[in-house]
Design goal:
266 residues, mainly alpha, 2 domains, two-stranded antiparallel ribbon, 2 strands, 66% helix, flat
Length: 266
């Protein structure tokens, strides 16, 4: 298991969150992400963040391991915050020096966007950490099944999304190995001009793409050898069914929505 990134990996543990039906978890995370962009006030941000921390505590997944999922978006978060700080229009600026314009509105909006990105990525990481790829695939296929009546390839889309999530840590491991191998051969990725650093990415990207295509071909061969046919009716070794804990989780989600709306107006 790649310990540098948590998104796309499954962390085995005996917790209530792990035992939840994957359909409940998937819909709950979707609703949570929607509600993240509905909050505005400080109490509402505190409430949605507290709910996420409670879920993390109940999952028995180490806090540091969940936070590793943020490493992949540090640059995007910094770039988003910088754009909102310097390019948010306002009537009164705290700092105005040539093109640099910093206002109180820009700082507040940048802080909100940073918190939203943090909650979004953390909630998504918690979903993959507490749900096996197979269960996640079954949940996606079940939720997309109504669209199959109009010709939408629900099974194929579910399989593609699951494989993509599963191969994120694999490709990260492969990239790390390629970088170490190139450094052992004398490659320097940390010094030189920007153009030189961009050119040094070629010895990394070429073998990475070759490895990715090779893995994709091996996976396709393995699926064909096991007679995988997405268009054919398939049975499940473990059928999805609701338990008592799932109904409790549904009630919690239903209560969560109006509480967020109420806290938004505080």
């Amino acid at each position: 298991m790649n310990t540098r990134i948590s998104f796309g990996q499954f962390y085995p543990a005996d917790s209530y969150i792990h035992k939840l039906d994957p359909r409940v978890k998937l819909v709950s995370v979707f609703i949570y992400i929607v509600m993240i962009f509905a909050v505005e006030s400080v109490p509402s941000y505190f409430f949605v963040m507290s709910c996420l921390f409670v879920a993390m505590y109940a999952s028995h997944v180490p806090f540091r391991f969940v936070m590793r999922g943020l490493r992949a978006i540090w640059f995007m978060m910094f770039f988003t915050v910088a754009l909102n700080i310097f390019f948010t229009p306002s009537d009164e600026y705290l700092v105005h020096f040539y093109f640099i314009k910093i206002s109180a509105d820009g700082l507040v909006f940048a802080a909100k966007m940073a918190v939203r990105l943090f909650l979004l990525v953390t909630a998504s990481s918690l979903l993959t950490l507490t749900t096996t790829p197979l269960s996640l695939s079954d949940a996606i296929e079940f939720l997309l099944k109504p669209l199959a009546k109009i010709g939408f390839p629900a099974a194929e889309v579910a399989m593609m999304m699951t494989i993509s999530l599963r191969f994120i840590p694999t490709l990260m491991d492969e990239t790390d190995k390629i970088i170490k191998a190139q450094k052992a051969r004398g490659a320097d990725f940390e010094t030189g001009s920007i153009m030189k650093r961009v050119q040094m990415l070629v010895p990394i990207l070429v073998p990475l793409f070759v490895s990715a295509f090779r893995r994709a071909e091996e996976l396709a061969t393995a699926m064909e050898a096991r007679c995988y046919r997405p268009e054919s009716p398939r049975t499940k070794m473990k059928a999805l069914k609701f338990e008592r804990i799932d109904y409790i989780a549904v009630v919690c989600v239903i209560v969560f929505i109006p509480l967020v709306i109420v806290s938004r107006n505080l």
